[in-house]
Amino acid sequence: MIVEDLTKNIKSKYKNKQAKHKLNNWMKGYLQERIEFKSFQYNIAIKHINAAYTSQICSNCGYFLGKRSTSNIFHCPSCDKGVNVHYNSAMNIKNRFNDNEIKLNTNYLVIRSLLLDRNKRMLEFKTEPSKTLVDV
Length: 136
What we know:
40% of the residues lie in helices and 10% in strands. The protein is an alpha+beta fold. The strands form 2 sheets. A 3-stranded antiparallel beta sheet has the order 3-4-5. A two-stranded parallel ribbon has the order 1-2. Strand 4 and strand 5 (82-84) form a beta hairpin. The longest helix is centred in the C-terminal third of the chain and has 20 residues, at 108-127.
């Protein structure tokens, strides 16, 4: 089973310590506990992954910085696909398992830089003229 690490603290814009504490102790602790219990009960191995930016990547083409609409639809400007935001994030978490460059403890800024580089290469490849035989 591949899951995002739910034990990390949320970086909050709130300055109030009580608000930060409440945000970090919401249902994620209970959810993490239940996932671990059920996986132990049914002898299922858990693999934690770094979930940074998984909600902003298109699960279809890999384009970074897609848009989320108010109707919970993730829209990719690159491949022009629309998909449920939760499904999109889940597929990206699944795909992150096979990503050799992004580890569990990789800093989010490093991940952002890596994803932007991938975007750049993808867009360059997409706009590259096809190589055909010309006047041989």
